[in-house]
Specification:
It contains five helices and twelve strands. By secondary structure, it is of the alpha+beta class. The protein has a single domain (4-109, 125-284), classed as Acyl-CoA thioesterase, double hotdog domain (Porin, Beta Barrel), CATH 2.40.160.210. Strands 1-2-4-5-6-3-9-12-11-10-8-7 form a twelve-stranded antiparallel beta sheet, covered by helices on one side. The termini are far apart. The model has no long low-confidence stretch (mean pLDDT 94).
């Protein structure tokens, strides 16, 4: 029986079908709705397999809802291989239709000017309950028809800093933070930048859109709002390890036109290693 971490790696590790064509399998993490983080992670692996450099930025649009009962086909276009940078366009397709598009840029590591904003200060991860422990505490609030899906263990170990019960939402500040790491160490052929980056990309979409919902006291979990990721950008600033604790510090600055803008920063050992920007749908249901 494979570990949770190996199952996640297997999910993200798309299979090569042709030089620039890859196929990824799906998991029913949220029932029939395909988790956007899966497409982000798989598209990054697909593009990474066509170059020898780590990614430094990804800009993506979610075009259509994906399905969990079909595999995803990833078509990669080689736009440029320069001395310093390489650029790839990735299209994700299901049933003949494009559901996702991403432009991914890769760069050789180099030395240069260094600066970062001050790191946030939070207690250590072990001082907070895990997401799974919080689910158990709140399980009586979960509707019976949703309980099996909600109570599943997520692929990563997460310790929320300022958790809320999504089934009893209350108005709160537009800030949220979590510590996250894989359950097991990445080893052998998987302990390379593309898998660390893909797992971070996978997780980056998990709770980010909830940040702009917090000031309104509404939640995707109780049916009060229709929410989805619309676009997603990730910047990789330096090397990091997803099998060591990362702090994902998130905030939202504006909600309007049934959309919210969310920002996230990944910190490790006091260093800002990745930044994320996302616009999300937040359409209130009648």
């Amino acid at each position: 029986m494979e570990s949770i971490t190996q199952n996640l790696i297997n999910l993200l590790n798309v299979q090569k079908m042709d030089e620039y064509l890859f196929q990824g399998q799906c998991t029913d993490l949220f029932g029939t709705h395909l988790f956007g983080g899966q497409i982000l992670g798989q598209s990054l692996i697909a593009a990474s397999k066509t170059t020898d450099r780590p990614a430094h930025s990804l800009h993506a649009y979610f075009i259509r809802s994906g399905r969990t009962d079909l595999p995803v086909l990833y078509k990669v276009e080689n736009l440029r291989d320069g001395k310093s940078f390489a650029t790839r366009q990735v299209y994700a397709l299901q049933d003949g239709a494009v559901i996702f598009s991403a432009m991914i840029s890769f760069a050789k590591p180099e030395q240069g000017l260094e600066y970062q904003t001050a790191a946030p200060e939070y207690p250590v991860p072990e001082s907070f309950k895990s997401e799974q422990e919080l689910k158990i505490l709140n399980q009586d609030d979960i509707p019976e028809f949703m309980r099996e899906v909600v109570m599943r263990q997520f692929d990563l170990r997460m310790h929320p800093v300022n958790p809320v019960n999504p089934f009893r939402p209350e108005k709160a500040g537009a800030e949220y933070a979590e510590y996250v790491q894989t359950f097991d160490k990445l080893t052998n052929e998987f302990d390379i930048p593309m898998f660390h980056q893909a797992i971070l990309a996978y997780y980056s979409d998990y709770n980010l859109l909830t940040t702009s919902l917090r000031p309104h006291g509404i939640s995707y979990a109780n049916g009060g709002v229709r929410s989805a990721s619309l676009d997603h950008a990730i910047y990789f600033h330096s090397e990091f390890r997803v099998d060591d604790w990362l702090l994902y510090d998130m905030h939202a600055t504006r909600s309007s036109q049934s959309r919210g803008i969310n920002y996230g920063q990944f910190w490790q050992n006091g260093k800002l290693v990745s930044s994320v920007t996302q616009e999300s749908l937040m359409r209130v249901r009648p």
